[in-house]
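fold-stage: in
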Amino acid sequence: MGSGYNAAHHERRGRMKWSLNTYKTAQDWELDYLIEMAKKTGYHGIEFLMDYNQRHGLEWDTPRERWDEVKRKMEEAGLEFASLTSCQVFHHPTEEERRKSVERVKRVIDMAHFFGCKHVRVLGDRFTSENRDEVIRNVGSCLRELGEYAEEYGITVSIEMHGSFTDPDPALEVISIADRPNVGLVFNCVWPNVTIETVDEFHDRIMPYVTMVHAHRVEDPATFEFYRRMFAKLKERGFDGYISNESAYTGPDPEKVLAMYVALYRALSGE
């Protein structure tokens, strides 16, 4: 990695925390109900997904007067803003479109600073074999600018290992190009071409840069051992960021299921 990246910045010593990502499960919940459910089912914070017009009402262009109400309600509930999770992407071929995305994320960073939120997630997101190198350079450059902007506020900006960046090679390339101590990775709990024999090596490659984890169906037998090994590696590193529930459950008993995932996280982390 470049000289600007300080892996120790992400090797924080402490205990993992749990957040509820509003993807699918909570996308139609009004803010008050979202807060109530997150608190009663044992989450430390909420990860607010943006750019999908979810009912919680936080978007990159949410009026400033709305910020106070959201902050007050979260503080009264004793919940943290785990992440403001932007779905802006930087794979656009034109500088104009990339600039638009960067400026929108800068406003999200301003919002995060107001909320006392220390994490903003962005996406890369897609490339082809023909434009791979160009897209990676552009994404890395955008992340560098956002990292510089966020550093003043003590905020980390992380690209999710999603889309074409699910593969650790391009994901780590953009981290190297960005070359900032506060730019990292959100691991999306997808293990491409990974086996039980190679999963520990896979985790070793990405873990120095992981700032947050998006967990899905942890209970699935097909990937349960991968999750178990991941939690062990996070614990070994002293990770104290968020494990965010992105299970996308939409069944009839969300309270029971959300609480079950917290119990799983606690068991896997040895809490």
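fold-stage: in (second)
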Amino acid sequence: MLGASELYRGSGAALMASSVWKGHITFGLVSFPVRLFSAARSETLSFNQLHKDDNSRIRQVTYCQAEDKPVPRSELVKGYEYEKDRYVVIDDEDIKKVAPKTAKVMEILEFVKAADVDPVYLESSYYVAPDEGGEKPYALLFQAMRESNYFALAKVAMHNREHVIVLRPGAKGILSHTMFYQDEIRQVDEFRTDTSLVKDKELDMAKMLITSLEAEFEPQKYHDSYRENLRQMIEAKIEGKKVVETPEAHIAPVIDIMEALKKSLAEKRKPAKVATAAAGTSVEAAAPPVEVATKTRARKTKTG
């Protein structure tokens, strides 16, 4: 179990550079210092905006409408529009004065059964690491939650709002997830499932298909092929290669569900050689959408 100092000072892709929140966790009369670190972030390729005529980069300018001139960011303040075109100015000191105690203290409100927490409520994920002097009570809370199979619900203020947060035991320490509030969850009345449409034979066949596709959860084997294709396309354009379109996937309409399930199971039961050949075809079809425009010379081979 890594402490906050190891997470902060460590190096490597798995370690975080800085904490997003620092304070104390309290439950009952127990209190100990912790830090929160972002557990995940979305990786995307970003593009800059250029002027079409000369490919020069476009610069965003903050512009004052009243004075009809650009203004530096140092002259900007926060304003809340309470009526059309009427604002009240809010500065950092105003915000500090109304910050709740949860800005520095994460108070555990209650413990709930892990099975009762619907994942739809979970938003962002964070690692919770003990700060100096908090290792023992941190380990106590971690072990108690792990053995009792309970999650903790707490409140914490960060990123200009107060969050309800779920604390749960992970593989090596405590993880936390900010929660959506009830009024932020979209209640869709039309979202329902009519299970009376399902026949017993269809259900048995579907369960067999699920079993045939059963595997260990290994997230490291999944990759964003769209991002990879984008990166390869960019590299190809830099090198002066021709870019071709990725073949579209063909999705046949399902007319007979039993027939579709039978065919799916038959595909999964193909002999190893057939499956390998099919896999080779799919890899070739999924090759990067890049075609080399330059010609290559055929090599001469000697025969003995």
